[in-house]
Model the fold of this input.
Amino acid sequence: MPPHRLLLLLCLAFFRMGDVEASPWVGGIGVSIPVPGGEINLSGASWNPESNSLWLVRQNRVVWEVGFEAGPDTFRVLRTLTLPNATGGDLESCTHVDCSVDELYTLSESQGRLARITGLNDSAIVARVWNFEQSNNGYALPPETPSGDGAEGVVFVPDAWLYVSGFRYPDGSSFLGSTRGMHGLIFVGHQVGGRVFVFDVNPDVSEDFINHGSFLTSATETCGLAFDRSVGLLYIWHNPNDTKNSLEVSRLTSNAAMGVLDRYEVQDSGVPTGNFEDVAIVPWDACGTLSSGPQQRTLFLVQDGGTPNLVAFPGYICSGTTLGIEEPPRSGPGAAEPVVYPNPSFGRSVLSVALPGPGWLRVGVYDLSGRRVRGVADESWADAGTHRFELGGEGARKLAVGLYFVRVETPWGRANTRLIVLE
Done:
């Protein structure tokens, strides 16, 4: 049975097929965040889950990193940079590929150019560029129109999630893995027709990429993209006009119709109005962090012209939809951090957890709904030091294809890590 069919069976309560009913906005009330130098406009945003910081771009090649600090101001600007001219003009969006590396990818609307920016701690360098408007594999990213409609949103999606989701290219062909060394695909949202284009990019060689065509979405203008790496949902922000914005949630499949992204939900009533042009989101497994409540997380919108230019919605519900997903497990302070290797796995992995002292130890594996699918350890007394447990393999049932959370509970708190199982 193909991996995406197994995943659908595993997550039946989580996924739905075909088009969905319109739904209300679940983000609550927004809070303005001041960005010195960005008062006139902002154009793009990307949340880095490793550094817990928000990256912002403006058309004039200025970028900001914004961090969270508990206190009356909550967020503050950590650094401001002006990028080199080689990024291209009219920067509209940004994304992270390897979130542990201090680099950024930016998208230029006027040239359809993706740029890899390194050296953010010192002097920013444009390491590589890819001009997506050139014809490639029979496709080309449409150029910016005279009225200013062009490529506006960009996000990276890792291979592991494309495998697990049963992703197919827009032409219906099966996804067998990216081939250019980025270990994932670049998605670009376009204002014309609301299409989302898919690129396989070589991160080490300029202009080495494959254009795999584009998907239709639920609206006529796509201007923002965000991907939640903790649960594999793609968030697509639509801005056909300032009074009719919508947020589409997709699961990376196109099972209902070839070349059309399946929709998990479309939030199009009560949505914030204004020329909001990009979206960023704190991941599902970080619910209850920053200034959000225990069943909430933060979503960010940036506005091009008008005020406010950066708005945080700390009341965005954990599931990110009205359809409901049980509250995810969350880490507590002092928890023993688990490590799973290999991850992604093919059904057999080893969990390692280091205890700072002797005490009780409980380990379990949970699916996306929060259901416990595997009890790994339940020890009333465990010695200090590293403990290892096999997750699948000889003497244990192999885990089915899908995404899991491995939860470790000790006297020092609770910690979680994700486990992706491939076929």
